[in-house]
Amino acid sequence: MSKITLAHGGGGRFQNDLIRNEIATRFSNCLLDSLPDGATTPEGLVISSDSFVITPRTFPGGNIGKLAVIGTVNDILMAGGIPKYLTCSLIMEEGLELDELRTILDSMAQAARDCNVLIVTGDTKVVPRGAGDGIYINTAGVGFKRNNLQLGQNRITPGDKIIVSRSIGEHGLCVLASRYNMECGTLQSDCASLQQAVEVIIQKSDNGSKLKFMRDATRGGVLGIISEIFENSACSATVYESILPLSGQAAAIAKLLGIDPGFAACEGCMVAIVTADRAEQCVEALHAIPGCEQAAVIGEAVPGNGSVNLCGEWGSLRKLVVPSGDQLPRIC
Prior knowledge:
Layout: H1 13-23, E1 39-40, E2 45-52, E3 58-59, E4 62-63, H2 64-78, E5 81-93, H3 98-115, E6 118-127, E7 135-145, E8 161-164, H4 170-179, H5 195-204, E9 211-216, H6 221-231, E10 235-240, H7 248-257, E11 270-274, H8 279-286, E12 296-303, E13 308-311, E14 317-319
Parallel strand pairs: 5-6, 10-13
Antiparallel strand pairs: 1-2, 2-7, 3-4, 5-7, 8-11, 8-12, 9-11, 10-12, 13-14
């Protein structure tokens, strides 16, 4: 393949190969080589950057402005940081309605207040009509590393449990339904800060000492993220399909569209790896957080070489294959 396609941005194998083979190799260093969503510097800073190009720009549960703040804050949280500051860069297309821009910026401001972060600097650019898609937003986040919290795929060992913090796929499926003006009932994007979920899991895992790894299940969804986690670990994983938490409305939309909800993006759902003796306590505590009532232990680390197997309802195993194409373009 000699040109970039939409599949290179879809969270599947093509995007992963592009990042690993073409981008990361050119900037290789000890902070980047593990491809974290947020890098932790020797000085104790946690830094992340993200860009948002969603269509439609407004959807049930949020808009591109809220998404930009929440997505970057969650990346800092997943890297073991305490988010403090954000940047805000806007690339606006000629013809964008000023009222829509005001709504987007108001949503960003409210989300920043809710997450207790400050937007402290940024940039604006305007491109000619037809050269953009209304508005693109880039944010960078800066936070401080939590003392005594050590996270990494290298810490995962056989027997560790895989936790998902809530029902899956709701952001990607909601956005797709909105894009095509489909009736989705009360289904909304799960776009929300993971601050409470992180605090609970740290508390219930002996102040984080028995927490091995965290990732938010954005592009690629829960199954895509689990594949990435174990691809770079010294273990394999088994995921139990029948336990994956999925709301009835999300399941109906996924079935109608032929979408595997396990690979549909989330914006307020995390995958955490914890020791077996703390997994159930973590899940029980998550159930007390609004939106996390369906948190569950969905799998476990097993001896192996980085593969992930799905276990069916009758106990049969099949290898997890991450889609090569793009199920849900422009969803974050």
